[in-house]
Amino acid sequence: MLSRRLVWVCLPMMFGWTLAVMAQDAPHCLTANDLSIATGQPSLVMMSSGSTHVPVWSLSGGTVGQSVAGVVPGFSEEYGGVKVEIVVTTNESETNPSLEDVYRVHLSQMPENDVFTSRSVLGTPVRTALCEKPFQTRTIVLESFYAIEPNVPLTVRIQREPGDPADTFTRPVGLVMVKVTPQKAPAPAHVVQDVSGYNSWPVIQALGDKLVCVYSRGTAHTIGEDARAVYARTSTDGGKTWSPETVVANTPGDGEVTIGKGLDSTGAMLLWVRRIGKEWNHDLYRTTDGITFTHLATPKFDVIPIQITDVFAVPEVGLMALWFAGNYGDEGPCHSWGTLTSGDDGKTWTQHVVESELPKSEWPTEPSAVYLGNGRILAVARSEMGGNTTVRSQFQMTSLDGGKTWKRSRTNIGDVLASTPSLIFDPDSGLLSNYYYHRGRGVLRRSVVSPDSIFDQPLHWPASEAVALGSAVTFDAGNVNATFIQKTHFLAYYSGQGSDTSVVVAVAAAPENSEQNNK
Fold it and tell me: What pTM value is reported for the model?
């Protein structure tokens, strides 16, 4: 039974893909004897099976606040971060894959002449399914990339979270080992626009071999100010350089924000722009070159969306986009989401409500969707829940009938905060890439999976990896939007602080399916 961050030794053979985003070295291992009590009263015990005896820290399934800690020597300047994994096991007969436990890691460094809390990070809780039998081990990724200061010792504290709603195993689990693996930092992103102002909320679309990046600029993290307009630039060298900025939309008295993109049946780019003045409007533009944009439609809807997201094609339907409506500041139940469909390449749209009267805790926002074939659609959406529990994990929505009916579930993707996901499905490799920016941490992450393994099992997403970095602030960075040219993915997001942010594009090689390569 596999779940996100649950990594068996045979995982690469079972799933058959390889990733080449970051280089890493051998892990530094802390055994149970290298750890000591940090909080609570966990017990250092000997777990025995026959003539084999292994020291473990027994972490309770009923007592909150038990943790142990150890120190790892500093890493050299060639490394920009670390990955943290734990190895756990249990001798309890009640273990079975229908139960889960939850852990988190606390990481800190104390650079010379700096405030000792400046490098402290409270990790996100990670949920995994238990093994089928006692004494089987699990290796769980608790942190895929924590940025480090070189040559400064790293304190690692591991804590079980029996108070988290996802921790359903009430018996003790033994912590066998902590593995800390140094990693080289991802390559820097290319700058699209960094003029003074709040350059933000970009979308990116490939038109043949040309990249088109469209973004909004205002004075702050606001969407309705008159100063906010929409601009575009293009690149023909993979995002290294960009054409002069052109104005897409700048309506007097209204604030305009890019919210979605896609292609019509002819290969032209479509662009959704939210326009806010006396009322909310959603304008659809069309372009064939990324420079000249023509207004195509401003559809009127019974339920006014907060946002319409990326456009994608569904056979026998035409074009489809997802939408959501409600109020970010309202706990509900007043929230909804659904689909828009167009049979005439975006000139007209029909709105469908999938769910309504949702509480905020169950409201999927800013979704990204892909068509997988045979009527199957998979979408991933942001959660508006904060806090540091598994409740803030991304949502997954699936359809088996071309978007007529849907099933919504919560995933185990928790290393994200209030930030938009963006999906790329490669039918050649059969792999799905889920990109999302971890606000507050400054890490753009990617989780890669075969859709078949998670379509009906949304708690089985694998651990993420870092593909790019940005500013470690809460809301003045993030919201990735992805596109691809052949086997290269291009990821637009924004990064900065306060009223001064930049739009950038990171580049990542598409994941490869090792099973196909070996044929």
Answer: 0.93
